[in-house]
Design brief:
The chain has 11 helices and 14 strands. Helix 9 crosses helix 11. By secondary structure, the chain is of the alpha/beta class. It is globular and about 55 Å long.
């Protein structure tokens, strides 16, 4: 066991959104630390179910963040040492038709969680936010001190949740850390994401319809993303701060598809016929300067290497 995982040994860890991709992948990594893991969600994927079956230190907890009473009772009983708040409604549609549910879960659910933990003496609260809070007009690479300009209802509610954590911390002297996650991917990726959709179409032998793919994104492999998150937790430098979790590399959507086509021996068909979204963010690249200055050493695998691992 390395020193980072040893740090979590015998700790009580709560992962909201533990039934989703990121939460369950984090749980997989933390299994060997002998920590007590509570994965909280309203539904659980195959990864989280497998993690729970294989380890008695893992418990799947079916609680809705919008149900304050149930959440409060659970938190008071569990009293976690570290909280990874990954639960959210993810939707990048550029209209406000679903704003109410986004606000109810992403903002209201975050407040319910903070209030439920109010009397718990936790050591760290790590909230997953999104690179989309930087918006259209900020210069790339995005750095944490730039003024956010969210361009969708989803990113707006994530920024509101960020500010809620900061304000709650100021009022109650509670630690918080904001993790602005860029475009992560990996094996067993769900279809909500670009690479997840691409993988699903490939496996079902269907044509993949997309835009012309001029948008540039910062793609980070799931193992690398979790490695950065755990480094931030372990470093314990500032528990009242915001960090980009990214690769600091720019790749267009079209480049990703072409690499994917190459490594599948041209068995993947794609058609660039879809319109771009309103208020599209054309370049979304993160600066990882802050975490590098803390002593983090990123791995040197290429996007092609990581896509091969994803397929395999």
């Amino acid at each position: 066991m390395d020193s980072t995982l040893r740090f979590f040994e015998n700790k009580r860890i709560l992962i909201t959104g533990g039934g989703g991709y990121l939460g369950s992948k984090l749980a997989e990594v933390l299994l060997v630390s002998n920590a007590s893991l509570k994965l909280l969600d309203i539904a659980f994927n195959e990864i989280s179910n497998s993690v729970a079956i294989s380890n008695s230190n893992v418990e799947l907890v079916n609680i809705d963040l919008t149900k304050k009473d149930s959440l409060h009772k659970f938190c008071q009983k569990t009293k976690p040492d570290y909280i990874f708040h990954f639960a959210a409604i993810l939707n990048r549609v550029r209209d406000f038709e679903i704003y109410d549910i986004l606000y109810k879960v992403n903002v209201g659910g975050t407040l319910n969680l903070l209030e439920s933990l109010k009397n718990c003496n936790y050591k760290g609260f790590f909230m997953a936010s999104t690179s989309e809070v930087y918006g259209v007009n900020n210069q790339v690479p995005f750095h944490e001190d730039q003024l956010p300009e969210p361009s969708s209802p989803y990113s707006l509610t994530k920024l509101m949740a960020e500010n809620l954590c900061k304000t709650y911390s100021a009022l109650h002297s509670k630690p918080y850390t904001i993790l602005r996650l860029f475009n992560f991917f990996g094996p067993e990726m769900p279809e909500e994401t670009f690479i997840g959709q691409m993988m699903a179409h490939f496996r079902s032998n269907k044509k993949f319809y997309m835009t012309k793919g001029s948008q540039k994104r910062d793609f980070v492999y799931i193992d690398n993303l979790i490695d950065q998150v755990l480094f931030i937790v372990r470093s314990n430098v500032k528990l009242f701060d915001t960090y980009n979790v990214c690769s600091n590399k720019s790749t267009s959507m079209l480049e990703v598809v072409k690499i994917f086509k190459e490594i599948t021996n041209n068995q993947f068909e794609f058609v660039t016929s879809l319109d771009y979204r309103p208020n599209e963010i054309w370049e979304m690249i993160g600066s990882n300067k802050r975490i590098l200055e803390m002593g983090y050493y990123p791995n040197t695998f290429s996007l092609k290497d990581d896509l091969i691992k994803t397929i395999n």
